[in-house]
């Protein structure tokens, strides 16, 4: 049963981080009883005992006994167990000559069904566990003024850690020193571009927008930092999501279908057995009450599709085997059929529909026209800087090499550079060519570059910049931003004086020459997969934490309708009825928090849809759990793999369409058996019922009916292997 979510508990972590973000550094150190020398070993040991190891508890693993119980206890087996129990009473306890035949046959059917289910579940779970193994990670920590290496699990609140490019952030941290720091928070927020971090922050923003806070689950793309750990393990922002997941349980569509069929059979038995018993009791007299009861049981046994659990589990197991051949791990057998029932497929954008890597999409002059000279200058700036190169620098260098500009590496010599800093939001290099000509090349945020430009180059002619030209340049940048392309400006200056050391004051009177634009591009296979799903009656919907412009751009390329889009802010302003109505028309939801994603999935379910969700980040964990079928990938964060029902070993989205077809084939084969078995059994039992009116004895005993049904069912055991 689903437990009610506690929004107060969820907001507690966010409130704490907002408060800690605004504290002065001295007050922060006093609160955590630490300083720049770090904790001493005794303090660290005491806090480790107090707060526990720095790990996220995704929930306790089920014991062998519980796993066996889960395999045995399913709706159909419960019906069979009830019939077996009644049969044991009538055939063994109350009978003059005890007969175990019917009881033992029913028990054998239950055991076979449970064994098939248990074995397949174990195989799938063991394969999934191999994907979820974590590598032990260590970080540099300052304790007693000495820098030592410590396992991430042993870090505690108050520890001072040193972080560099490539490091995972070991908890929620507050940055106290930074140098050119960019962090990838895409798995937490869905933002594809690295986020710039500072030592101070505006606290009137959302928790994930705090500029001086780093979150567990994110990693450093470039730069370095020193930080104080604020919270660890389950107390982190990431950990608060894990707690919400552990308290959230919902039956799948497959389980609901099983429940409905089993309830129908139980109701039929509850009505049929007493009616038949009373009718036979009246016609055959009081002396035949046991015989009448046995006849009622006979009819109940005869109607039951005894081999359905076996057929069902065999069909699901075969589906799982077929999926494994496509490098797909099925963690829960019932997920195969739910996959087939899915009619709305919700997916995150970053890394799922896109390649999850920044590429240089455009290089253009100030009028928005492609100009290779802009790429040339951007390449010189990125290649010759000595600082840590961020993803945009890597993208520029990669594109320039493809455009055969590598020769420029030998054509220039770097004389000096003006490093990037967060107040200027730009960086410059001073280069000299073989003729001794020197030039200053600067790239950075559009507003910051425009603020240092006195001139603009149009068609090779340098003109004084004007308000009109500035407005036009901004318009070009904004238009690209709306298309989902992140734009930075490039400027240069030739009349560089002859000094050897350059500073920020030299970044003046520059010439704006153009822009470069970056994009996290869609996967080539994504469009084909979406078309294939659409042809099979599955609607694809995008739920992303990225900006609206980026989402519209990517989704437009993949063939989505962009007429209606909704952001997280708009969704918060809607009540459930309004959002349910909007879900009927909108295919693109952007700038969503994990909880907003979960709410959207819930509204699709409220509209009567079977919803699948695919994602690989922390921000996808809640919607993965909410969805009827959760799909993740092998390189997803552990919490996403934990809650997913299906794990793709390769990010080939065409497997999704194949999975839907496989699920529908599995369901069709089970349906064929159910229709054949139940219709045949009803016909047989109706014949027996009519015969009993005219015969002074029972036409058939329960064991006869059971043997007849099982013989018919064994002939249908090939049903799971039938082609649909």
Task: Give the gist of this structure.
The protein is of the alpha/beta class and 724 residues long. It is 48% helix and 19% strand.
Secondary structure topology:
Layout lengths: L6 H16 L2 H8 L8 H11 L12 H9 L2 H19 L7 H31 L6 E6 L2 E6 L8 E5 L7 E13 L1 H4 L5 E2 L16 E2 L4 E13 L5 H10 L6 H32 L4 H15 L4 H18 L2 E3 L3 H8 L2 E4 L11 E7 L6 H13 L6 H12 L5 H4 E10 L4 E8 L4 E8 H6 L1 E6 L2 E4 L2 H16 L3 E8 L16 E10 L4 H12 L3 E5 L4 H10 L7 E3 H5 L3 H8 L4 E3 L3 H13 L4 E4 L6 H6 L2 E5 L4 H6 L2 E3 L5 H41 L7 H13 L10
Parallel strand pairs: 9-18, 9-21, 14-17, 18-20, 19-20, 21-22, 22-23
Antiparallel strand pairs: 1-2, 1-3, 3-7, 4-5, 4-6, 4-7, 8-23, 10-17, 11-12, 12-13, 13-16, 14-15, 16-17
Helix pairs in contact: 1-8, 4-6, 5-6, 5-9, 5-10, 6-11, 9-10, 10-26, 11-25, 12-25, 13-14, 18-25, 21-22
How many helices? The count is 26
Structural class: alpha/beta
Fraction of helical residues? 40-55%
Mean pLDDT: 80
> N-to-C terminal Cα separation, in Å?
35 Å
Radius of gyration: 33 Å
Give me the side-by-side strand order of the main sheet. 8-23-22-21-9-18-20-19
Strand percentage lies at 15-25%
Low-confidence stretches: 1-7, 131-136
